[in-house]
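Changelog-linked ticket: PRP example.
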Amino acid sequence: MSSQPKLSLLFTKDEIQATVKKLAAEIRRDYLGKQPILIGVLKGSFMFLADLIRFLDFPLEVEFIRLSSYGRGRESAGKIKVVQGLQSKVKGRHVLVVEDIVDTGLTSAFVLDYLGKKKPASLKVCALTDKPSRRQTPVNIDYHGLTVPDKFIVGYGLDWDERFRNLPDIYVVENEG
Ligand code: PRP
């Protein structure tokens, strides 16, 4: 059986929704009329992306990319590769990468490099949460949601060994063990 970590509330679903709405307003201002492609990085971004696009009332497309990395476990520091690529061509398109969290920055840096080689018209990053204390490589977050402390967080798409993605609020795992 899995252990039961203690969770403490960090952001309520209302705080999250207010942040999603704020980010959507910024994205709308910049992308209206550009038919952007929003690319969610699986799995963590699925809930955020689903909520975000409900606030975007103009033509856009949705894509997902799935990565794998070796030697990560609960930490993220491994070698990254693409395990599920894109169905759409991004050359000449306005592309917005949607992340649930930027932690070390390695994932976003990889995705930006990978997509940048496909020559999009523009390439930006939207991140619901940001843990700057853990950064190993610089990442410019164009649409920035919530700054989080150097703690393991779960909920709203974020997991702890695949658990807790379904929680509507975001919590800190207090006793990771
Ligand atoms: C998480 C998260 C980001 C990445 C950020 O994904 O969804 O994609 O880590 O970490 P980084 O900035 O240190 O690279 P994870 O690899 O845990 O996979 P998941 O989304 O499937 O949970």
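Closing comment: Example verified and attached. The beta strands are 7-11, 37-42, 61-69, 80-84, 94-102, 122-130, 143-147, 153-154, 170-173. The first strand starts at residue 7 and ends at 11.
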